[in-house]
Specification:
about 375 residues; 15 helices; 2 strands; disordered N terminus
Length: about 375
């Protein structure tokens, strides 16, 4: 990483340097495509039974790194307006406007997906589906399904199992204004103190291991507590750190950090990060997984967040990647629903068998046009 002489005041109001705005917006959109495709790939591997194939199975399982990438991006993009306002001495963003934009961004497409999933599985049976009740519908629709005990046997819906991460995302939306106030008003006393702010964010990363120790040692907590925001806060903080570094003028280059991310990925694919499950059962693997994923996802986002315009940024800014990035949220929403139908009705694979690449490709072909339609009719339109 290097520090340029540019300062926040020279940047455009939208959070991007005026010279490189199109490229930077495009590459940040493109990396969303990477995240969505990784999530699709890991679910294709799980559904075809590849998680049990030793080290290769763990490599497939760790493709869930797409979720931490989404979280890092959220931390970066959503915290950046507060950081820019602090650096420039401007008024802070309106919390009311921020909240309304978050609701408008995620809820229309999500609500359509939830209704569609419940409608589809009303007419087809694909195994145990404990969430297919009216209470399950309300819990999933309100993104409160993870706040319960026995989550797997209460509100988990067959076509919406990935939505635990969207519930975590929504929780971050709620607490971000409070975090911004604590960091910028209380800690930094409403003055631009970037080093102090970075220190505060580094302290904030301790919430995740502290919470994991708490939930693994204290009896009586609902098992859903392992899926709550504190478990994953370190991933969002990775993006928040990038937001501060971007305003400070720090630059990061892909050739320097991507090798570290790749090596970290293959280390995390060993048993050090636990079994192939969302939340490892043992404490040490849970902490290692959280830390490794934070490092990998933050380093993957860092070059495009911090001004690299080399091959990595150009690849992510290519038309196919930007197109997929624009509909990445909708791909994430519907891919499990389409994957189950593709596997059963088109490929005729019994569960936990078949070709992972074939399922990935077929699901991709079916999902992309449907995701585009969902995006087309639910996206936020400019006034």
């Amino acid at each position: 990483m290097t520090v340029s002489r540019g300062v926040a005041g020279s940047e455009a109001q939208g959070g991007l340097e005026s010279v490189a705005a199109p490229e930077r917006v495009a590459s940040l959109t493109g990396i969303r495509a990477v995240a969505a495709l990784l999530v699709l790939a890991t679910h294709a591997a799980y559904t075809t039974g590849k998680y049990t194939h030793g080290y290769v199975g763990l490599v497939y399982a760790r493709m869930e790194i797409g979720v931490p990438i989404f979280f890092v991006l959220s931390g970066f993009l959503l915290f950046q307006p507060w950081v820019k306002a602090a650096a420039a001495g401007r008024d802070w963003p309106s919390v009311r406007r921020y909240a309304w934009h978050r609701v408008r961004r995620i809820m229309p497409a999500y609500a359509v997906t939830v209704v569609a999933a419940y409608a589809v599985y009303h007419f087809r049976y694909a195994g145990p589906n404990p969430g297919h009740t009216w209470m399950g519908f309300l819990r999933n629709l309100s993104l409160t399904q993870i706040y319960t005990d026995q989550y797997m046997y209460s509100y988990l819906h067959q076509g919406l199992t990935q939505m635990w991460s969207l519930a975590v995302e929504a929780a971050f939306y709620v607490v971000l204004p409070l975090l911004a106030w604590l960091l910028l008003a209380v800690l930094c006393r409403r003055r631009w103190r970037p080093l102090l702010l970075l220190g505060g964010l580094l302290v904030l990363t301790a919430v995740t291991p502290g919470w994991l120790i708490f939930v693994h040692t204290v009896d009586g907590l609902p098992d859903g507590a392992r899926l709550w925001l504190p478990t994953y806060l370190i991933w969002f903080v990775g993006g928040m750190l990038l937001a501060v570094l971007a305003v400070m003028g720090v630059r990061c280059y892909a050739f320097a950090v991507l090798p570290v991310a790749v090596v970290s990925y293959f280390i995390a694919s060993t048993p050090i990060a636990g079994e192939p499950t969302t939340s490892p059962y043992a404490l040490a693997p849970a902490i290692w997984k959280a830390v490794f994923y934070a490092v990998i996802a933050t380093l993957m986002v860092a070059p495009v967040a911090l001004g690299d315009r080399g091959w990595y940024a150009r690849l992510l800014a290519s038309r196919p990647m930007v197109f997929l990035g624009e509909i990445s949220y909708e791909i994430f929403l519907i891919h499990l629903l389409t994957m189950e139908i593709v596997m059963v009705e088109l490929l005729h694979f019994p569960i936990y068998t078949g070709s992972m690449p074939a399922l990935f490709l077929a699901t991709f072909v079916v999902t992309v046009p449907l995701a585009w339609l969902l995006h087309r009719f639910t996206r936020v339109r400019s006034a």
